[in-house]
Design goal:
The chain is α/β, with parallel strands linked by helices and about 270 residues long. The chain has a domain of about 140 residues: Rossmann fold (3-Layer(aba) Sandwich), CATH 3.40.50. Helices cover about 40% and strands about 25% of the residues. It has 12 helices and 10 strands. The strands form 2 sheets. A 6-stranded mixed beta sheet has the order 6-7-8-3-9-10, with helices on both faces. Strands 2-1-4-5 form a 4-stranded antiparallel beta sheet, covered by helices on one side. Strand 9 and strand 10 form a beta hairpin. Helix 5 crosses helix 6, helix 6 crosses helix 7 and helix 7 packs parallel to helix 8. The radius of gyration is 19 Å and the shape is globular. The chain binds adenosine-5'-diphosphate and magnesium ion. Adenosine-5'-diphosphate binds next to strand 2 and helix 2. Magnesium ion binds next to helix 2.
Length: about 270
C-alpha cells in the first residue's frame, strides 16, 4: 500500500451541492437557480494538502464557504472525522469551529485595525477557552508568532504597520494558534507579490508538515498549487473534472480543461516550480 492510500480521510465530501436562488429580473420571469457547486466529491486525508483549482467563478470558494457553514448546502454530505457537518445545527457545529479554520485572501479585511496584534491573537484563544488568563494567552502568542517567522515584539503593534506578507503571516498565526486539524485556505497568497507568495507558501507548507495538518488549498493559480499540493482536484463550472496526485495532474493531465489551465501558467512560474 502506498503512503497516500494508507492515510485516513479526515474530511469526506460526497455529492456536495450548493445552489443559489437568483432574484427574478422581470415581472414574469421566474426565479432561477445558479448551481455554483453541483455534485462535488473529494476527500482530504490526514496530513495532506488537497488543492481545488479552477478559473474564477467555477465554485471553489462556495465549496469552502459551504464546508464552514457560511453557505447552506443544497445537498450532499461532508463527514469530518466521521460526522456529517452539513447536517449539524450551528450549535452542534460550534465545537468543531476550532478544528476547521479558514485563511482568506485579504487578511486586512479580517484584522480589526483598532486592535493590536496581541489583542487580535488573544481573542480566539479566549473564545475557544484555550487560555484562562493573559499570561497563558501571551505565551501562546509568543510561540505562534515565532512559528510564523515574526518577532514576538510585534504584538504591541497594529495591522496597518505591516506589509501584505506580514499581515498574511498574522492571519496564519490567528489560525495556527487554535491548533486546527483542517485548514481551508482560499486564495491565501493571491493578493501578494510573487516574491512574497513563495515565502508565505513555504511557511504554509512547513506549518502543515510540522503539525500534520490537513489542508484544502483553494486557488485559481496552478503555478501556486504546484508548490504546495499532494493531490489536486480541477474544478470547472461547479464540478470536479479531474483529480489525482500532483504529478499526474501536472505531467499527465487527462481532461482537456486541465490541459488548457496548464497551458495558461506563465513560463516563469513553470520554471520556478
Ligand atoms: N451568495 C451568492 N449568491 C449568489 N451567487 C453566488 C453567491 N456566491 C457565489 N455566487 C456565484 O456562484 C458562482 C461560484 O462563485 P465562487 O464560489 O465564488 O467561485 P470561485 O471561488 O471559483 O471564483 C459564481 O457564479 C458566483 O457569482
Ligand atoms: Mg473564490
Amino acid at each position: 500500500m502506498t503512503q497516500a492510500t494508507s492515510k485516513r480521510a479526515l474530511l469526506d465530501v460526497r455529492d456536495l451541492k450548493t445552489y443559489f436562488t437568483i432574484g427574478k429580473t422581470g415581472l414574469f420571469q421566474a426565479k432561477s437557480q445558479l448551481k455554483a457547486v453541483d455534485g462535488v466529491s473529494f476527500e482530504v486525508r490526514e496530513g495532506e494538502v488537497l488543492s481545488l483549482v479552477g478559473e474564477s467563478g467555477c465554485g471553489k470558494s462556495t465549496v469552502g464557504r459551504t464546508l464552514t457553514q457560511l453557505e447552506r448546502a443544497t445537498g450532499g454530505r461532508a463527514d469530518f472525522d466521521g460526522q456529517d457537518i452539513l447536517a449539524m445545527s450551528p450549535r452542534a457545529f460550534r465545537p468543531l469551529r476550532r478544528q476547521i479554520q479558514m485563511i482568506f485572501q485579504d487578511p486586512f479585511a479580517s484584522l480589526n485595525p483598532r486592535r493590536s496584534i496581541e489583542q487580535t491573537l488573544a481573542e480566539p484563544l479566549f473564545i475557544h477557552k484555550l487560555a484562562r488568563n493573559w499570561a497563558e494567552a501571551r505565551s501562546k502568542i509568543v510561540e505562534t508568532l515565532e512559528q510564523v517567522g515574526m518577532d514576538p515584539k510585534v504584538m504591541q503593534r497594529y495591522p496597518h504597520e505591516f506589509s501584505g506578507g506580514q499581515r498574511q503571516r498574522i492571519g496564519i498565526a490567528r489560525v495556527m494558534i487554535l491548533k486546527p486539524r483542517l485548514v481551508i485556505a482560499d486564495e491565501a497568497v493571491s493578493a501578494l507579490d510573487v516574491s512574497i507568495q513563495a515565502q508565505v507558501l513555504n511557511l504554509l507548507k512547513k506549518l502543515q508538515q510540522d503539525n500534520g495538518l490537513s489542508m484544502l488549498f483553494i486557488s485559481h493559480d496552478l503555478g501556486v498549487v504546484r508548490h504546495i499540493s499532494d493531490r489536486v482536484a480541477v474544478m470547472y463550472k461547479g464540478r470536479i473534472v479531474e483529480m489525482g496526485d500532483k504529478s499526474q495532474i501536472f505531467e499527465n493531465p487527462q481532461h482537456d480543461y486541465t490541459r488548457r489551465l496548464l497551458a495558461s501558467i506563465p513560463r516563469i512560474a513553470q520554471k520556478a516550480a
